[in-house]
Amino acid sequence: MLIGELSRRTGVHTHQLRYYEARGLLEPHRGANGYREYTGDAVLTVTQIRRLLEAGLSTEEIAYLLPCATGAAPELEACDELLEVLRARLHGLDDHIGTLVRSRQALHGIIDTVERNLPAEQRGCGSVRPEPTPA
């Protein structure tokens, strides 16, 4: 199948598929006309890539893990090296979440201080920008 068909079948834009190819995650064959030609297995591979990206893995990590993947979930072959990569990514995410929580707490503290120091006559009079409304 050509890249447009793979895009339609997976819901992934063609530029993303080309990016996956550049990162070594997809390996199409080139037809005589130079067009990318994918096998039926490419649909499963793209599904696996998308699910692993949703888990917060980088394309470099996915390239390492993909040969161990089976099924759309995907299920990964159990091995110590694989667990090491997954645990390292989880540790990185936990660190990032911790940093975000600390930043959020600090921002709350700054907002509280500003609100306490705001003269009563200026509260709600339009001198302070309104909070953005969630979409």
Automatic annotation (TrEMBL):
Keywords: DNA-binding. The keyword DNA-binding applies. GO terms for molecular function: DNA binding; DNA-binding transcription factor activity. Residues 1-68 form the HTH merR-type domain. Pfam families: MerR_1 (PF13411). It comes from the Bacteria. Transmembrane segments: none annotated. InterPro entries: DNA-bd_dom_put_sf, MerR-type_HTH_dom, MerR_fam. PANTHER family: HTH MERR-TYPE DOMAIN-CONTAINING PROTEIN (PTHR30204:SF93), REDOX-CYCLING DRUG-SENSING TRANSCRIPTIONAL ACTIVATOR SOXR (PTHR30204). This is MerR family transcriptional regulator. It comes from Marinitenerispora sediminis.
